[in-house]
C-alpha cells in the first residue's frame, strides 16, 4: 500500500472533530512529501533536531507537532516554528517554552502529558501534579504559552480492556479539569496506529498515527 492510500484509508475512518497528526519520525523527507502531496499538513516528530531539519527543507504551510519528550535546552530550536508541543510534563519545561516563545514574539500551544500507563518508562504528570501545576502562581505568570489540552500514551499491550481503562482515565481527568475551570481545555491527544479507534471512542480529538501511514520503523 502507498503512503497516499494508507492516509486516505485512515482519514476516511476519522470523525470530523478528530485531527490527524502524521507521525513521520525516522522517515525521509521524500516519504513526508508523499503525504504532503496527498493533502496532509500536520506532521509529528519526536526529536527536535530531526523536526527542524525537515521544517527547513519542506513547504512552510506544514504544521509541526513535537510529540516526544522535550529537553529544556533544545526548546529554542523549535520555538520559532513549532505549532503544538504534546509532551509537556513539568512547570520548568513550560517556563522555558514561555521564555523562548517570548523571544520569538509568539504564543506557543502546549498539551500537558498525563501519566496513564502502567509502564515505568512513560513520562507525564499524575492528576495531583496536574492540579498543582495549573493552580500555581508561577503558571499564571506564563503569558506566552497556551494550554490547549492533555496528552497521554497507553501501556504497550494487546489487552484492549487495559488500554480502554487508561484512555477513559485520561478523559475523566480532562472532564474534571473542565469542571474546575483552571484552564479552558479544548483537546485530548491520545491514540496511535494500534489503538486510535478505541481512543476516539474514549474521547480523543487528536490521533498520532505513524506506522499505519508510513510503514514500520
Ligand atoms: C511514535 C509515536 C507515535 C506513533 O506510533 P505508531 O504506532 O507508529 O502509530 C505516536 N505517539 C508518540 C508519542 C510516538 O512517539
UniProtKB/TrEMBL annotation:
<comment type="function">
    <text>Pyridoxal 5'-phosphate (PLP)-binding protein, which is involved in PLP homeostasis.</text>
</comment>
<protein>
    <recommendedName>
        <fullName>Pyridoxal phosphate homeostasis protein</fullName>
    </recommendedName>
</protein>
<feature type="domain" description="Alanine racemase N-terminal">
    <location>
        <begin position="3"/>
        <end position="216"/>
    </location>
</feature>
<dbReference type="InterPro" id="IPR011078">
    <property type="entry name" value="PyrdxlP_homeostasis"/>
</dbReference>
<comment type="similarity">
    <text>Belongs to the pyridoxal phosphate-binding protein YggS/PROSC family.</text>
</comment>
<keyword id="KW-0663">Pyridoxal phosphate</keyword>
<dbReference type="InterPro" id="IPR001608">
    <property type="entry name" value="Ala_racemase_N"/>
</dbReference>
<feature type="modified residue" description="N6-(pyridoxal phosphate)lysine">
    <location>
        <position position="25"/>
    </location>
</feature>
<dbReference type="Pfam" id="PF01168">
    <property type="entry name" value="Ala_racemase_N"/>
</dbReference>
<dbReference type="InterPro" id="IPR029066">
    <property type="entry name" value="PLP-binding_barrel"/>
</dbReference>
<dbReference type="GO" id="GO:0030170">
    <property type="term" value="F:pyridoxal phosphate binding"/>
</dbReference>
Amino acid at each position: 500500500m502507498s503512503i497516499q492510500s494508507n492516509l486516505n484509508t485512515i482519514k476516511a475512518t476519522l470523525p470530523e472533530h478528530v485531527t490527524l497528526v502524521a507521525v513521520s519520525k525516522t522517515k525521509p523527507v521524500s516519504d513526508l512529501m508523499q503525504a504532503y502531496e496527498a493533502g496532509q499538513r500536520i506532521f509529528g516528530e519526536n526529536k527536535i533536531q530531526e523536526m527542524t531539519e525537515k521544517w527547513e527543507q519542506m513547504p512552510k504551510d506544514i504544521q509541526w507537532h513535537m510529540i516526544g519528550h522535550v529537553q529544556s535546552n533544545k526548546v529554542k530550536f523549535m520555538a520559532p516554528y513549532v505549532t503544538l508541543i504534546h509532551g509537556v510534563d513539568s512547570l520548568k519545561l513550560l517556563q522555558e517554552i514561555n521564555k523562548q516563545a517570548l523571544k520569538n514574539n509568539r504564543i506557543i500551544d502546549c498539551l500537558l502529558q498525563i501519566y496513564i500507563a502502567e509502564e515505568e518508562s512513560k513520562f507525564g504528570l499524575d492528576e495531583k501534579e496536574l492540579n498543582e501545576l495549573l493552580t500555581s502562581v508561577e503558571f499564571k505568570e506564563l503569558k506566552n504559552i497556551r494550554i490547549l489540552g492533555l496528552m497521554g500514551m497507553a501501556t504497550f499491550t494487546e489487552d484492549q480492556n487495559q488500554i480502554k481503562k487508561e484512555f477513559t482515565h485520561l478523559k475523566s481527568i480532562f472532564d474534571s479539569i473542565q469542571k474546575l475551570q483552571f484552564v479552558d481545555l479544548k483537546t485530548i491527544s491520545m491514540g496511535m496506529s494500534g489503538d486510535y479507534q478505541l481512543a476516539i471512542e474514549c474521547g480523543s480529538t487528536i490521533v498520532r498515527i505513524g506506522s499505519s501511514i508510513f510503514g514500520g520503523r
